[in-house]
Write a structure and sequence with these properties.
This protein has 149 residues and is an alpha+beta fold. It has a domain of 99 residues: Gcn5-related N-acetyltransferase (GNAT) (Aminopeptidase), CATH 3.40.630.30. It binds coenzyme A (COA). The site of coenzyme A has 19 residues, from α1, β4, α2, β5 and α3.
Length: 149
C-alpha cells in the first residue's frame, strides 16, 4: 500500500493544470485505441469534481472525476493510474477520495461504467456488478456497477 506522504491530491482547475490533466486522461484512456485528442472530454467537465494525484516532482500519476446524475446519485468516470504505478493502492486512494467528496456533496449512491479490465478493481473497492452494458471502440466491454455510500 502506497502512503500519501510524497503524493498529493489536487484539483486540476485550481492548480491551472487542466490541459496536463486532460492529456494524462487521453494518454491512458484514449490514445491506446487510436482516438484523437478531445475524445477524452465530455460536456460535464465544468459541472464535475475533478481530482488528480501528483508525485513529489509534480507529475500527474492518477486521475478521476465524478458528476451528479441527480442530487443523490454520482457517476465516477475517467479513472486511471499511470501504467508504472498500478497495483500500489493508488487507484483505491483515488476512489476513496472521490467517495468522500461525494458524501460531502450529499450523494448516497455511486454508479460507474467499468471497463472489463477494471472489474476486479471496482469489486475490491466495494462496487457491485449490475449488468453488461456497451462495447466501446468495438473492443472494451463495459459493465454498470453500483455502490451505496
Ligand atoms: C483500474 C485501475 C485504475 C486500478 O488502479 P490501481 O492503482 O492499479 O489499483 P489499486 O492498486 O488501488 O488496487 C485496489 C484493489 O483492486 C485490486 N485490483 C486492481 N487491479 C486489479 C486487477 N487488474 N485484477 C485484480 N484485482 C485488481 C487490487 O488487488 C486491490 O485489492 P485490495 O484492496 O484487496 O488489495 C488501473 O489499473 C488503471 O488505470 N487501468 C487502466 C485504465 C482503466 O481501465 N480505468 C478504468 C476505466 S472504467
Amino acid at each position: 500500500m502506497m502512503t500519501m506522504s510524497k503524493l498529493k491530491f489536487a484539483d486540476p482547475y485550481h492548480e491551472n493544470r487542466i490541459e496536463d490533466y486532460f492529456f494524462f486522461r487521453w494518454k491512458l484512456l484514449r490514445q491506446p485505441w487510436g482516438q484523437p485528442k478531445g475524445t477524452e472530454r465530455d460536456d460535464q467537465e465544468e459541472n464535475s469534481i475533478q481530482r488528480m494525484i501528483v508525485d513529489e516532482d509534480g507529475n500527474i500519476i492518477a486521475c478521476g472525476r465524478f458528476h451528479l446524475n441527480s442530487p443523490h446519485e454520482a457517476q465516477i468516470r475517467y479513472m486511471a493510474v499511470d501504467t508504472g504505478q498500478r497495483g500500489k493502492g493508488i487507484g483505491k486512494m483515488m476512489m476513496e477520495e472521490l467517495e468522500s467528496l461525494a458524501i460531502s456533496a450529499g450523494v448516497k449512491t455511486i454508479v460507474l461504467q467499468a471497463r472489463e479490465n477494471a472489474l476486479e478493481f471496482y469489486l475490491a473497492c466495494g462496487y457491485t456488478k449490475v449488468k453488461e452494458t456497451f462495447l466501446l471502440y468495438n473492443d472494451i466491454q463495459h459493465y454498470l456497477m453500483i455502490k451505496k455510500i
